[in-house]
Amino acid sequence: MNKSLEVLKKIYKPYRYTILGKAMVLNTTSGDFVIKEKREKDIKELYLYLTSRNFTSFPKLVDDSRSDVNVYEYIEGVSMPEEQKAFDLIDVISALHNKTT
């Protein structure tokens, strides 16, 4: 990840880094991005499948060309009551179920 991180620093020119769990948030003048290590499954294939089923409730995959990391757009969190979060989660899961069955 260190080699890819150095390349991404040159591309995006961040002014601040934030580590959130296993992800790193880059704050840049052109927007905020999240860098996560790649897992065993191909995330691009999953994104293409979900997009083909008209499901769009996921962050945009900005760069997946690196061998060890993926770059996503950063979506700022909004404070809301726990009940509303639960209701929204149920809506997203039911939409995902309807789109993929």
Q: Describe it for me?
A:
The protein is α+β, with helices and mostly antiparallel strands and 101 residues long. Helix content is 40%, strand content 28%. Strands 1-2-3-5-4 form a 5-stranded antiparallel sheet, covered by helices on one side. A hairpin with a 5-residue loop joins strand 4 and strand 5. The longest helix has 19 residues, at 82-100. The model has no long low-confidence stretch (mean pLDDT 87).
Helix content: 25-40%
**Average residue pLDDT:** 87
**Overall morphology:** globular
How many helices? 3
Radius of gyration: 16 Å
Biggest sheet statistics? 5 strands, antiparallel
Pick out the low-confidence regions: none
- Bin the strand percentage: 25-35%
Structural class, by secondary structure, is: alpha+beta
State the total count of DSSP E strands.
5
Between the first and last Cα atoms, what is the distance in angstroms?
Answer: 36 Å
Strand/helix succession: HEEEHEEH
Strand order, largest beta sheet: 1-2-3-5-4
Quick structural overview:
By secondary structure, this protein is an alpha+beta fold. The chain contains three helices and five strands, in the order αβββαββα.
Helices and strands, with pairings:
Layout: H1 2-12, E1 14-20, E2 23-28, E3 31-37, H2 43-52, E4 61-63, E5 69-73, H3 82-100
Features:
101 residues, 5 strands, 40% helix, globular, alpha+beta
